[in-house]
Amino acid sequence: MRVKITIASACNLSAARSDGTSSACVVVYEEAGTYKSRRRTKTIKKNLAPNYEENFIFELIEPPTETSFNFHVFDYDTFGKGKRQLGHSFLYFSDITCPQGHETSLDLPLIDGGRGVLKIRIKPLDFSLGLADKFELPASPATKSLLTNL
């Protein structure tokens, strides 16, 4: 099974620099048991509301209902001081309500000291494993809590 995740944009990010801006990128981790995969957006400099519009295709392993996606927003320092986390959010694949081939937009609030919202779109591309065409929301209490606090 494949799923396309589009990192559309972020808004209201925390300022990590003395000039009141951040140079942010998003790292997406797919996790299923011991399997992990990672994708990264480009860094958008000096912007608290970056627009990414970057697409990533994830090949889900069995069983996909145990797959989660973790989204980490980082400020990258251009002077070699490394990265600083601005916040993160997560989504369980089982929480996705989206018929095959249709796209759903989600606003994910950033947690753990961060502020702001990460805007994503998700689209199941194929269900070669013979799974149903639709998933019911919400399955996990953690994601339900995130989505109801918007």
Automatic annotation (TrEMBL):
GO terms for biological process: positive regulation of gene expression. Residues 1-106 form the C2 domain. Pfam families: C2. InterPro entries: C2_dom, C2_domain_sf. It comes from the Eukaryota. Gene3D superfamilies: C2 domain. This is C2 domain-containing protein.
